[in-house]
Design goal:
Helix content is 42%, strand content 22%. It has 225 residues and is α/β, with parallel strands linked by helices. The strands form 3 sheets. Strands 2-1-3-4-5 form a 5-stranded parallel β-sheet, with helices on both faces. It has a 4-stranded antiparallel β-sheet with strand order 6-7-8-9, with helices on one face. A 3-stranded antiparallel β-sheet has the order 10-12-11.
Length: 225
């Protein structure tokens, strides 16, 4: 797997490159927008994933993401953002980024996020998994530990969304879009919370301490694969 690292801090580039290469990834880096786009859109030796810092000395990560996605819409992208930079995080996800990692981050967390995004980028399989919950989109059924779940239409749509994004972020806008067909109208914040609580009651071992659908403050939820 080949990773494009776009970051203007030499220290971060060195540390991340060493970490990723120790895990068997082939890494190339660029510090500015123009170089990153040139590397990421070349025909030979294409990348399997791009790690993009939002703020660069020359240009920005959003422009890089846009150019890469235009050339290769299926290329997975993870943004590296400041820990309190909620606006840039939401903007990156809205542009089609697959995930974000807030700085400072733990190396093992970053590696887990990379593996999750790469896994989701593989050709779709018939069955989707969220922990010990299995979703069969073809038959519109779900099971936990081999036992079929009794879900409402809304609960099933939410579970299908979370399972399809396993390992990544599910924003409230994504949830509204998934539920629009059932509700026929805008879904209020409190209503979304109620739906999530009901789904947790059916799929979590301990709904009071959820492991499969975790709340991400200011963003939505993380679906744990």
């Amino acid at each position: 797997m080949r990773i494009l690292l776009v970051e203007d801090s030499a220290d971060i580039v060195r540390t991340l490159s060493e970490l990723l290469r120790s895990e068997g990834y082939d890494v190339e880096s660029a510090s500015g927008q123009d170089d990153a786009i040139a590397l990421g859109t070349r025909a030979e030796r294409p990348f399997d994933l791009a790690l993009l810092d939002v703020t660069l000395e020359q240009g920005n990560g959003f422009a890089v993401c846009g150019a890469l996605k235009e050339e290769r819409p299926g290329l997975p992208v993870i943004f590296l953002t400041a820990s309190d930079d909620e606006f840039n995080t939401v903007a990156g996800l809205s542009m089609g980024a697959d995930d974000y990692v807030a700085k400072p981050f733990r190396p093992r967390e970053l590696l887990a996020r990379i593996r999750g995004v790469l896994r989701r980028a593989q050709p779709a399989q018939t069955l989707l998994h969220l922990g010990d919950v299995t979703v069969d989109p073809v038959r519109a059924r779900a099971a936990k530990g081999g036992r079929e779940l009794e879900l409402s239409a809304v609960e099933y749509r939410l579970l299908l969304l979370f399972a399809s994004k396993a390992g990544g972020i599910v924003t409230r806008d994504m949830m509204r879009e998934a539920l629009w067909e059932d509700s026929g109208a805008y879904v209020e914040e409190n209503t979304l919370s109620v739906y999530v609580r009901r789904l947790r009651d059916k799929i979590e071992d301990d709904p009071a301490d959820p492991r499969l659908i975790r709340t991400v403050r200011g963003m939505g939820y993380r679906a744990e694969g």
